[in-house]
Amino acid sequence: MKKIILFFLFISSQFIVRADEGMWLPLLISQNYDAMQKMGLKLTAEQIYSINNGSLKDAIVHFGGGCTAEVISDKGLLLTNHHCGYDAIATLSSVSNNYLMNGFMANSMDQELPAPGLSVRFLVRIEDVTDKVSAFIGDAYGADVEKKFDEISKKITKVSNEDGAYESDVKSFYAGNKYYLFVYQRFTDVRLVSAPPESLGKFGGDTDNWMWPRHTCDFSMFRVYSNNDNKPAPYSINNRPYIPKHHLPVSLKGVQENDYAMVMGYPGRTTRYLTSYGVDLAINVSNPSVVKIRDKRLSIMREEMEKDPAVDLQYASSYAQLANYWKYFIGQTEQLKNLHIEELKQDEEDEFVKWAKENDSDVKKIMPDFKKAYANYRPYAKHATYYREAFMASALTKLGASFEQVGKAVEANESADSIENLCKKIVASRKSILKNINVELDKKVFAALNLMFYQDIPKGQHPDIFTSEVFEKYGSENWKKTFDDYTDFVYQNTALLDSAKFATLCHADFIRILLLDPAVQHALSEVKNYKEYYEPKINDFTYEMFDLNRAYQGALLEKANNKLMYPDANSTMRVTYGKVSAYAPKDAVSFNYYTTANGLLDKYKAGDKEFDLQPKVVELLKTRNYGPYQDKKLGELVTCFITTDDITGGNSGSPVINADGELIGTAFDGNWEAMSGDIAFDKRYKRTICADIRYVLWVVDKVLDGRRLLDEMTVRN
Ligand code: ARG
Questions:
Q1: Number of the ligand 1 atom closest to the C-alpha atom of 83
Q2: pLDDT band at 101 (very low <50, low <70, confident <90, very high)
């Protein structure tokens, strides 16, 4: 379990270094340049972001939509996290060829494995389009803002896409006070090059997840392939490695406390300007709901996965994803309370209102509006979470829900052709929805989470199916039994899980039969209930929040005057800069800024699901076979280190870059004591957890025998 390392030798002054808040837009990085230079940066702003010359931004990609990766050779070699490559590695694995369990190393380029469905985007340029977008939106409000935004975005991106050479997005910043255009090049031929065994790539499992000190070697490597013109192309045996405009040199120098360190990548979402009312809702309604539902779902999954290695592999990726944010929300709630975030927000709001009154700003009465909007939404907030997390948890329900449109089309007596087309869509989505299904597991999830939905959601909000089908036929003496029997009935009588039956029935002629299928009836009963009564309320709240947040953040920008204010993360490229730095999580406890391979051996537990190591790795560690990757001063293999950079989910896999623009690590996690960081950044505790690049190279070289990869990198001593 969590080990607390005590370093009595550290004096408290060493912990004065505070975390460095802010996820900055690379286009505007010159505004931060002085501060960066003062902290030690030796590059020019132009070397970070340039549209004319190769710069750091050209070595960084949005990986698979939810992560970051960096180019580390002139042959398009990518480094990202193990947990970012996890789904691809699992998909490419089988029980007999289990790369997830054993690791993977392609010994030559022709052994690199095309990863189906995986793509990466390079950023070409960013442009400020605020004037165009704001003028078009005018003084629209509510849902109209979104409509107008979509319309003008389409016009703008139509031009910047240059007939398919690029793809681009217009993104809103500061809740609609600024708009930027991002132009990308997407590459779809991405191949798996190397991965550590899961015992290293996910060492410590969920026990160590979101925590420091850490020893996880959370990396994997892929390669981008292009056609002969170095342009994106679908997979082809004739494609060749992409030649990047820039790749990151790799430094073996290692890190010292207070060294400059910056991170560039694609942070997904933060809500740093959330009001105290939002914090209250998270603490008391949304977070506990997610945690409770996932607790149940994960325990069912674990039970079935432990029974059968095939099921284990099948569900490994979705389990990891569910577990990651299960623990995230436990930590977020705990730290929102510990760090008194609601009170801090209230103080900020008081100060804001005072400023607004002094300046006679339009928004001086905005806080009661926020309060009212949250109060109106609150009776439905739980339903929204349960709909997504519990009701839709089983694959069978998801598939049943995909009949919504066809059901409407039948009711509206639409033509056989249009119904046939809708059926085709269902057939296609059925494949992906049922891709990884284990019926026994799915059934247990269905029974348990419907029961939970029934028990936790106010009766007045229930779908008809609970009364018309479940209670009438299966009684109401023992709810668990009722839902178990009902589940048996649904799974025994549905045609959706039988491919042959389904193929015969999913046509215009037979669609009425399928619409009576118990799984379809079950799903659509709640889909209709939700969409008719609750979604409109949730949408009202969402649009009201858009309007209020636009006004609030607009005023905050005004209040900040000339001081820099960074926008919330929104899956666009950002730069964060800080230092390598230790911290003291609580009274009398100090955490060092790095971990070593000694800790790996300390935590090692043979046969354990989370702390096992391969015999080969144990041998290498015991003989201290660290090669050139050993830290020269310490005489140890440094495994991970921490910095004060400001990152969040989506930054996973981001490069950690030193003052000279060299790669020193890959960022892979945040720390427990600052888990409320997406809502409020705590300067004392927030740290970014990074795998030291020398640890990564040690695994590539010594564990996976992949020296050919080292040969193509630009390694600096
Ligand atoms: N917490 C890490 C992140 O969100 C992911 C770690 C994955 N490991 C795990 N045990 N689930 O970036």
A1: 7
A2: very high
